[in-house]
Specification:
The chain contains ten helices and no strands. Helices cover 79% and strands 0% of the residues. It is mostly helical.
Length: 259
């Protein structure tokens, strides 16, 4: 099967269209947290038939960027594009069953694309800021029409930006993974180890930014859930880790938003 056959190309286009809608949740519409990696990556994974890959990628990236929020003029790394791209690349390049090494390589690859997402976000914000000048130059009824038009154009700009980036990142990523699979086994072991280390790195970064009181609450809650889940429900350790990470991330995110 070709790397970029008709089915794969159509899936890439569908992922770009869905990813563009999810990306609007970052700042443009709603802000319901759907755009957070811990939600966006498993969602795309579920659509593409591999939720586990989405959970691993989403949890890893959320730990790193959970407190990196687009406040004011600050343009952070677009974690939504990175998490969705990494998930889609890993799944599509592996025929829906991504190995740990491919997940690690996809994470590393999309993390390297972060500067491009930040440049694109900055360009769209600058373009959208010009729309306000057009609205202010209007008067009366024309101002209302211009305001409505400016809102739709601003949303369209954010949406198209994400779609275009996905249409660039996904094919490039799939080709890169195909090259990576032919590398010696040492490279694959290194990428697998990289994935295992990411939660430790993300946890350290999160603890560094959280207050001791907040961290103590999350730590106690996680410990209690672990003690109850393992002997009572016989829950696998990996599932418990993902649930704990999800709860801590959402709690940390909500506490920062409402602080």
């Amino acid at each position: 099967m070709s790397m970029l056959d008709t089915h794969t190309i159509l899936t890439i286009i569908a992922t770009a269209l869905i990813g563009g809608l999810v990306g609007l949740d970052r700042t443009a519409v709603g802000q319901f947290m759907i755009s957070q990696p811990i939600v966006a990556a498993p969602l795309i994974g579920w659509i593409l038939g591999d939720v586990t890959t989405g959970l691993v990628i989403g949890a890893s990236l959320e730990l790193i960027w959970v407190l990196d929020m687009p406040i004011g003029s600050f343009v952070p790394a677009n974690s939504t594009i990175s998490s969705i791209s990494a998930t889609a690349i890993a799944i599509l390049a592996s025929n829906h069953h991504a190995s740990l090494s491919v997940i690690g390589f996809s994470l590393l690859l999309t993390t390297g694309m972060v500067p491009l997402t930040m440049i694109a976000d900055t360009m769209v914000r600058k373009w959208n800021s010009r729309l306000s000048d057009i609205v202010l130059a209007s008067h009366g009824v024309k101002m209302r029409t211009a305001l409505a038009k400016a809102h739709f154009l601003g949303l369209a700009a954010f949406y198209l930006k994400s779609c275009i980036l996905y249409l660039i990142f996904l094919p490039v990523g799939i080709i890169a993974v195909a090259i990576f699979t032919n590398l010696p086994e040492n490279f694959h072991r290194a990428m697998s180890f990289f994935v295992k280390l990411l939660p430790l790195l993300g946890s350290a970064m999160m603890v560094r930014n959280l207050s001791p009181t907040t961290f103590d609450v999350f730590l106690l809650t996680g410990f209690t859930i672990s003690v109850i889940s393992m002997p009572v429900f016989h829950t696998p350790e990996f599932t418990i880790m993902l649930l704990l990470v999800t709860g801590v991330l959402l709690g940390a995110r909500s506490s920062e938003v409402w602080r």
